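The step that takes the researchers longest sounds almost clerical: writing a folded protein down as plain text. Below is the pair of lines this work produces for a single protein:

——
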Amino acid sequence: MLTLYVKTGCPYCAKVLRAGEELGIDFDLKNVSDDGIVEELIARGGKEQMPYLVDAEMNVEMYESDDIIAYLHQRFAM
């Protein structure tokens, strides 16, 4: 399962979510407006920036919407 840290209203997060939808990917979404999620994000990645992708199966974690989208296409495009 892929985990995606997002923020409501973030256009970069929306861009990644659209790409995931096009590829048929279901994310475990973690919204930084929920209690404790910002702290969890900072502990994982070192900064408060969204979106942030965690692909535990492949041991990949990354910021930057364009990088995330490129990774999703590389990993999941048919």
Summary: Helices lie at 11-23, 37-45, 65-76.
